[in-house]
Amino acid sequence: MKKYIYLLLIACTLGACENELELTSPSELTTAGFWDTEEGARTAHTGLYANFRSSMENLWLLGEIRSDIWGGRTFESPNNEALIRSDITIATAPFGGWAGLYTRIHRINDFLVNVPNVSFVNEVDKSHILAQAYGLRAFYYYTLLKTWGGVPIILEPIAEVDPNGLSKARSTEAEVMAQIKADIEASLSTFGSDNSFWEGNRNFWSKAATLALKGDVYIWSGNIMGGGSAHFETAKTALQQIASFGVALEPNISNLWGVDNEGNSEFIFAVQYKQDEASNFYNSLTGRSTEINPTFNDKGNSMGDFVIAGANRYGQSDKTLLLLDDNDDSRKDATFIRLYVDDNNGLGYPTYNETPYFGSVFNKFLGQVIGSERIFENDVPLYRYADVVLLLAEAKNLLGEDPSTEINQIRQRAYGENYVPLIHAYTNGSPTENANAILEERYKEFIGEGKRWWDLRRAGDSFVIDNISFLNPGDEFKLVLPITTDMIGRNPLLEQTDGYN
Q1: pLDDT 10s digits, 23-61
Q2: Is the Cβ–Cβ distance between 128 and 198 less than 8 Å?
Q3: Which residue of 35, 232, 323, 485 has the lowest C-beta tally within 10 Å?
Q4: Domains of the chain and any CATH numbers
């Protein structure tokens, strides 16, 4: 894949202020002649992914930090405690400016309006990158919908500065969802029969990614917005197609993590990081060598040679510690390095022991050590096939079907040689029992991947309240965020999210 070397060019050329929907300068692409050539269009295409990468930490926070995964012991000052506790008011509303997502949407709008007018040597390439852009826009609007409910819909580039036209009211949730689905269908129709990954690389959006998003979206619209069985059938059909695109579960969890494994067959869409280009944000879930080196891991091995220069701002909750406290499940060691203040006379701590426990280092995206430095250059997946399998389990359960086959696919991979069907296999139960089993499997599978909050939300309000200790019955309005008073001041057409007035 091309490196994202054009980030600065795109940021300047497609410049949009982060005060979302109150832009102070228009797009200058057309007048600058940027869209006159295929080269310019390809440069803009590369820039879309640089833009996406710059939103990754916010996307992670939106999808995970309010869940039950985090909030445990750290050995440095913790971050985002108010979000973890869902301690949110109008005065403390997070993610001002819609988390920067409209800046990404503005740039996609420019792309979708201008690229069709550019001549390509190979028109198939043009169709592919346009299909990618529709998929990316659907993903952004889906994130906005899940976070705030109804939001403004903007589909055209900002062509000229007109203060009267920059403010726009929030559309209804139904209208936003309709737009998301329209972009999904535009993406699929523009991909057509092209099931390939751009340049053979899964760091770009693809037809498989659009189908994964479609399954995700239709489960949400069916369950949270009342669409019912027809939506679940649509989700199921979309998700079942993906396996034919050369996507499959990796046989071992160890095949997923580490820089050398980024080309694995399970990743569907992953955001690329490279040394001297961009580092991912997971160093905030690690720590500094001065704190870690005196400790021991749970096997009783010294951490004295561990190379790190990160921070320990997020600690796994007691619930997470206990959920993964299963030595037969390969996800335990793959997800965290548990640290203890002593080696327990060389025996280590095979099971969690609270008294000598020091904290954890997140292990999935630890990058690699080059020389005396750890480089956080792991690609980070947004969709992988395990996600598809468990989304399919959700759709089947909501249709009254048996989801145990999909649940057991994930369990069998996790336990490997330790898998004993009589102990580990799941047997179909009631819809609520199945839903809880799927949620638990997704919890263990996707820690740190920005999924857990959305998983609980997609299951339904009661599942959120039951699992998040900081939320109680009557707090359902908190499941969507308020918008800041500054945003309303800049755009008087905006109305505050229900429940926060």
Answers
A1: 433 444 444 578 999 999 999 999 999 999 999 999 999
A2: yes
A3: 485
A4: 1-68+91-194+479-501 (1.25.40.890), 220-269+377-470 (1.25.40.390), 282-376 (no CATH)
